[in-house]
Amino acid sequence: MPEIQPIPYALYRAAQVRALDRCAIDRHGIAAAELMRRAGRGAFELLRARWPQARRVLVLAGAGNNGGDGYVLAAAALAAGLDVRLLTLGDHTRLSAASAAAAAHFAEQGGVAAPFRRLPGDVDVIVDALLGTGLTRAPSGPWAAAIDAVNASRAPVLALDLPSGLDADTGRVPGVAVRAAVTMSFIALKQGCFTASGPAYCGVVHFDGLAVPPAIYASEVLSARRVDWRKERELLAPRAADAHKGSAGHVLVVGGAPGTSGAARLSGEAALRAGAGLVSVATHPAHAALLNLTRPELMVQAVRAADSLAQAAARADVIAVGPGLGRDAWGRALFEAVLTLERPLVVDADALNLLARAPRRREQWILTPHPGEAARLLDQDVADIERDRFAAAAALQARYGGAVVLKGAGSIVHGPGQRPPAVCSDGNPAMASAGMGDALTGIIAALWAQAPALDPQQVATAGVCLHAAAGDRAAGGADRGLLAGDLVNEVPRLFAAGALP
Predict the structure, then answer these.
(1) What letter does residue 322 receive in the DSSP assignment?
(2) CA distance 16 to 13
(3) What is the pLDDT at residue 312?
(4) Degrees, nearest 5: CA angle 189-68-145
(5) 379: Cα within 13 Å, side-chain hemisphere
(6) What is the pLDDT of residue 497?
(7) How far is CA 335 from CA 93, 194, 340, 355, in A?
(8) What share of the chain is helix, strand, coil (3-state, %, to 5)?
(9) What is the DSSP letter of 419?
């Protein structure tokens, strides 16, 4: 089977990909029909590699160029002796010249195109060539019916360029969308494939650049960049042979109100596992003595009042505030005290909720909200955040400064300046469990303490990728049952040369 990795790190919006396509045609003389031929043939080769036993192929073709790619694939399947059925949606009497030529070639091969009425049940693979990046509104009528039928089928789906119904720019599904097992993306990767609903609907993403000249990519500035631990670990230099705990950074975790001490403990342990030389935990006196019972390596200090926090923070290089902090008088006082300290901060959980009540801006901090916390920070609804996660991350950074990690499927990291946002493509659904955010907070704080020269966006990006890759290792392909502690235990192994999920 063709390599799943590596795929490009550059991500683009749909309009940019169309501009790249036009650049290849207009400036470099590659005919539209040739690009379509390359796309359809490449997708067919992937189909054969992915499902070598498949004999019955169903192609759903729309009336745009995505449908033209489908016609090319269908003709290639016929030539290979497969049983091919092609069902159409839209007005195929008004196809583009390239799509019309592809449809004519399919007919010359003996192929028959019929309007979609219902989906046949006896197929091995379904090819989605309905809409691609041409989505302008939620599918309705026969389009929605066809997508619903595809999703109800037990046959796996290969989506050409993009699952129909998925927004290429945001990863949002405004109505219904095809749930693909595999997506073959052409020319350039679309940023919506890697965040929000994108990962769930795209399945495994493959890439075919259609052999266009590399020079075409100079005509567009990437809108985002895909990141993973394979790449981001290059930011962290190997530890020197004469390293000692004092040279590996000191993290202070502030949190753990009564009843939520586990969050602070988990964040502290994650910081240790991510390489911090020393980790202190400033927590409520009600349980301070208990935190060392299962993790004696943590230095735990009972903090009854905010005025004693300065002593705990005196030796810290980075402060992580929020895990289990609470929003009562004790938590509020500690949060305000932390803000007076001149230390890089990682801000999570209830510290974010307290920040939302009294917004302020700071450059040397990293905020790590999930969509609910992001909604409170922006005074919006969660639906507003999920409608366009890229826009939400940018708005958070503009309001609060520093770097922002908008957590979720395809976590987005947004920093200041013109650097494009980062979208993490590691991670899995088994990570949807309690404590994962606390672990991320500790990991980011530890990396920052060890590499203070990195800027907040660099640190946040590396931390998000390390956390996600550790989740992939710990899950081992499972989609549930993963504990945050399982993830934390895998973190050290990812610093070993060649170690990946």
Answers:
(1) -
(2) 5
(3) 86
(4) 85
(5) 4
(6) 61
(7) 65, 34, 9, 9
(8) 45, 15, 40
(9) P
